[in-house]
Design a protein that fits this description.
The protein is an all-alpha fold. It has one domain. The protein has seven helices and two strands. A two-stranded antiparallel ribbon has the order 1-2. It starts with 11 loop residues before the first strand and ends with a helix. The mean pLDDT is 83.
Length: 222
């Protein structure tokens, strides 16, 4: 039976309960940092004027992210795109591990709330940077009228919770669907469908986080 809890699964490190999702995140980040280090020395430092192979794939990914961000936030894309791509990579890697039988870190709402906080910080730092400081940021919150300022502030404060619930709900809905499939056809079909839903909700989570980050930033700098 599917169980949903707001508290992380216990996991002790040197006698301290840090939570299983935190340990999984540490492991994923260690793998990511190792991979990025190798990528830097093997690809980035050896880049050529005419890209090919791994360099071509890397440039396509970076350019694609930049173009997507530019379409949402315009001139702020150079500042926002790297942050958005980092958050999306983190969420993708911490969720795709479910395919290998490991519990994804994103099935802990505390992890998804942390992603929401990262987006919140990104939005406000970008707003301050591209609106000319605190005064410009306040003027942006008063647009089109000072009457809407409380609503705009409340919207910004709710954003981390909104992102956390959206990302967490994807995991929960996938679990509910799989429980229903197991109840109807417990043999063969669940294994096939499970792989499909795992890939699907990983893509959804990654896309939703990137999209919401860019949308909130565009509202902050418009």
């Amino acid at each position: 039976m599917l169980e949903v809890s707001l508290f992380p699964t216990p996991f002790e490190v040197f006698g301290v309960n840090v939570g299983l999702s935190v340990v999984i995140s540490w492991c994923v980040m260690a793998i990511l940092l190792t991979g990025l280090t190798l990528l830097y020395f093997l690809v980035v430092r050896r880049m050529k004027p005419v890209p090919r192979g791994a360099q071509n794939v890397l440039e396509m990914a970076v350019d694609g992210m930049h173009r997507w961000a530019e379409g949402k936030v315009g001139h702020a894309a150079d500042f926002v795109a790297p942050v958005s791509m980092t958050l999306m990579t983190y969420v993708f890697c911490n969720t795709i591990i479910e395919l290998f039988g490991l519990p994804p870190a994103t099935d802990d709402i505390n992890c998804t709330f942390a992603m929401g906080l990262c987006t919140f910080v990104t939005v406000n730092v970008t707003g301050l940077k591209f609106r000319g400081g605190l005064r410009g940021r306040i003027q942006g919150l008063c647009n089109p009228s000072p009457v809407v300022m409380p609503i705009r502030i409340l919207t910004d404060l709710i954003a981390p919770c909104s992102i956390a619930i959206r990302l967490f709900a994807n995991i929960m809905v996938g679990g509910i669907i799989m429980q229903l499939i197991y109840a109807v056809a417990p043999v063969i079909l669940p294994a096939v469908v499970a792989s499909y839903f795992n890939v699907l909700h990983v893509g959804i989570q990654t896309f939703v986080l990137g999209l919401l980050t860019l949308v909130y930033v565009s509202e902050a700098i418009e």
